[in-house]
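Shall we go through a protein fold together, starting from nothing but its sequence? Please make up or recall a protein chain and show it to me in full. Go ahead whenever you are ready, and we will take it from there.
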Amino acid sequence: MALVPEGFYQCPFGFTSYSFYFLGQHYTITGIVAFPRFETENERQVAKRHPEIKTTRNSVSALRQLFADAEKLRADTIAKAAQVFPQAFHELRKLNGAIIQYAEKDIRNGNYSDSVKPIHSAAELMRNNFDILEALSNIDSMRALPISATINVFDLIYKTKKVYTEKAAGKKMSIQLNGERAIIHGSQKSFPTVPAVLIENAIKYGKAGTLIKIDVVPIKNTLEVRVTNESEFPIDPTNCFNRGSRYAGDSVEGGGFGLFLAREIILAHKGTIRCERLGHCINMIVHLPLKEVMPKDSIF
């Protein structure tokens, strides 16, 4: 579709219209008769019937300039924030890491109050969120990470489940993990984001008081990870992985980047992810190349 040049136009009914762009979107000011006029019969009739809508083109141009000033201010603010954010992000991550370190030390030594474990859980959640933010800000680098390390997917999901258990309990939800201790080749830096996103979404968009079920199942040379939960939100199975896609409006916090990021990481691991919806039941199904399955009697 061709872009409409900015400027004044006359609509077929005789009104003056002004076309312009703001933050990449097209807008039109209309329903006025602006001087200097186009001097058409339709315009004269409209001005006669509606004298209250008369104005000047200079007034419209001044309004347009306000939008231009706001757009420039926004761009300048983003540019300044881009200079400050990396260092602030680094310092926050260091602080969060120190909280985890000292909390784990107190828990190991048994010298902790009842408040230490919730603080530790909250810091673990923040670490997952920091990982997601870092991956989003460096997504091209994330795609290029080597996938030569080995990852025990069941053990990773078990640890992630422990981190999110308290958050799930806040909605009277529980998380059940079943399956085998399957190993894949992957990146230990990027892949942990996948179970974090899938479990967090299942809690965030899930129906209170329900069960989140996670199955880790080897199928020949493929590992299937299936996350099942109940949700009353109208998720679109086709578009839910698009960047910025949201299906809960403003009722749930989030920017619509989690599933997009999870898909990009899974694709980088030579895998696939899809969503199935059956009534209120949501299935997130991940397939990954399987390296091996640990014996059932191996130490966990």
User: Anything to note?
Assistant: The two ends are 59 Å apart (CA to CA).
